[in-house]
Design goal:
44% of the residues lie in helices and 9% in strands. With 475 residues, the chain is mostly helical. The chain has four domains: 149 residues, no CATH class; 88 residues, no CATH class; 32 residues, no CATH class; 108 residues, no CATH class. The strands form four sheets. A three-stranded antiparallel β-sheet has the order 3-4-5. A three-stranded antiparallel β-sheet has the order 8-9-10, with no helix packed on it. Strands 1-2 form a two-stranded antiparallel sheet. A hairpin with a 3-residue loop joins strand 4 and strand 5. The N and C termini lie far apart (82 Å).
């Protein structure tokens, strides 16, 4: 494919594809913004619900595109802001004159502009923004801010303080199974204490330990997480001076799912580390040496009598599902609710009628019902079939059942009856004290006030500098 084609035609094809890409994204965002408008009418009473219209639309977007709730929410937020506040910039984007990067910058930098001013700024930016495609991120930001300052000086975005940016994330490694990435921004004093503690733990082994200092510091994170003050030395000597009884200061439980053959060394099938994903067979066997082994028992064919499942059934459901079962959502079961597919007691407490939904999806399934709501059904093997408000149908299979087919063996079918929704059902929905729009306006108000304070301080410093450098003319 690389040896054919006229270069001029290839350039034309590349440019056309770039413009078509922007036009396609614009069409998608327009559809999302229009859906949001429709749902605002359909769910008028939901503005103070915890799972408000924004969450309801994000659920539909997540399912339709098979993406996470976070990504879907970002699209809803961007689409609504674009088509409600910047329709002329949206038209420029739909023609393919600017790309998604520029569009995101414009939306973010104009977020604090007052509603009665944004129309004029939108018109001006629409005439200029296509000239800024070549700019770097910093130059693009500065150029937009100049225009914002001309129209609404208080709306220029205020950079967040370092304290507001503090975070620490632990995520699965993108390339190496069984590994994780740790990173973040800490308070300097906390970071210094953390750094010293890692060094102390890393240096608790003898000089013959084969690991480098970097490797021992990495291992020290695990010891720190378990509440231990030292590492087990790997020198292999029975007379190691660093050998001692190491006791945990805190009880930490890490769950790993694996087949018996993997533990016995007769299979190389990987295991699963809850919250992190696939764990290589060698890592499973290493972890199992000091672990408490507990078999996952298949559930009984008979439903349980109460509303809450027994510990054994709960364990099976956690390992079968592993994540939230709503389409597009991959939140680990540790942060999910157990949901009766048919509300109890119309639906029994049984593996064929229970699955995990994260709290947001659980509330959506429970309260967004009826003609403009969601419906779900569950098959004996744990497959969930959801019907969206639009009639679109989505199927999700249990992640644990995919990785370990023994967990997807169909359990017994159970009888259900048709529930009758009680009057005032929505009164049980957790409520907000303020709407999402009120929260947005309050954030803008606070940031605008901070911008005015910064502008006043800059003007004070400028006047002081002018006064200090002023020399009266000679007479």
């Amino acid at each position: 494919m690389f040896d054919t084609g006229d270069p001029a035609a290839l350039i034309d094809a590349m440019a056309a594809a770039s413009r078509a890409e922007s036009a396609a994204i614009a069409q998608r965002l327009n559809a999302i913004a229009s859906l949001y408008q429709v749902r605002c009418r359909d769910y008028e009473e939901a503005q103070f619900w915890r799972t408000d219209v924004f969450e309801a639309v994000a659920a539909e977007v997540s399912a339709a595109q098979n993406i996470s709730r976070g990504r879907a929410g970002n699209q809803v937020r961007l689409a609504v802001s674009l088509y409600q506040r910047l329709p002329q910039v949206a038209a420029v984007f739909a023609r393919g004159d600017i790309d998604y990067r520029v569009l995101q910058a414009v939306i973010a930098r104009t977020a604090n502009v007052e509603d009665d001013i944004i129309g004029g700024l939108d018109e001006s930016l629409a005439g200029q923004v296509r000239k800024w495609m070549r700019f770097s991120k910093a130059k693009l930001r500065d150029r937009i801010d100049v225009w914002v300052a001309d129209y609404d000086p208080a709306a220029v975005r205020v950079p967040p303080t370092v304290e507001q940016n503090c975070y620490l994330e632990v995520e699965p490694h993108l390339e190496a199974a069984g590994m994780a990435m740790v990173g973040g921004v800490l308070d300097a004093v906390d970071a210094a204490a953390f750094d010293q503690r890692l060094d102390l733990i890393a240096d608790s082994v003898c000089a013959n330990d084969p690991r480098s200092k970097k490797q021992r510091r990495a291992a020290a994170c695990g010891a720190l997480g378990r509440g231990e003050g030292s590492l087990a030395c790997l020198c292999g000597s029975p007379d190691c001076p660093a050998a001692k009884i190491r006791e945990s200061a805190a009880q930490v439980v890490v769950h790993v799912l694996a087949e018996q053959a993997t533990l016995e060394g007769t299979s190389r099938r990987p295991g699963y580390l809850a919250g992190f994903g696939v764990l290589p067979a060698e890592s499973v066997r290493t972890a199992a040496k000091a672990a408490k082994l507990k078999p996952v028992r298949l559930p009984s064919s008979e439903p349980e009598s109460g509303y809450r499942p027994s510990a054994g059934l709960r364990d099976f459901l956690q390992w079968r599902d592993l994540t939230c079962r709503f389409p597009g959502c991959d939140r680990p079961v540790a942060g999910c609710d157990l949901d009766h597919t048919k509300p109890w007691p119309f639906g029994p407490t049984h593996a064929s009628g229970l699955k995990h939904y994260c709290r947001t999806d659980h509330l959506i399934k429970t309260f967004y019902t009826g003609p403009n709501g969601w419906r779900d059904e569950q098959l004996p093997d744990g497959t969930i079939i959801l019907t969206a408000p639009t009639g679109h149908v989505y199927r999700t299979e249990a992640h644990g059942g995919i990785l370990f087919p023994g967990l997807a063996v169909p359990t017994a079918s159970v009888a259900t009856t048709t529930p009758t929704d009680g009057v005032g059902r929505t009164a049980m929905m957790p409520m907000r004290t303020t709407t999402r729009e009120q929260d947005r306006r309050e954030r803008i108000r606070q940031e605008r006030r901070r911008r005015l304070e910064l502008n006043a301080e800059q003007e004070r410093q400028r006047q002081a500098w002018l006064a200090a450098t002023y020399e009266p003319p000679p007479f």
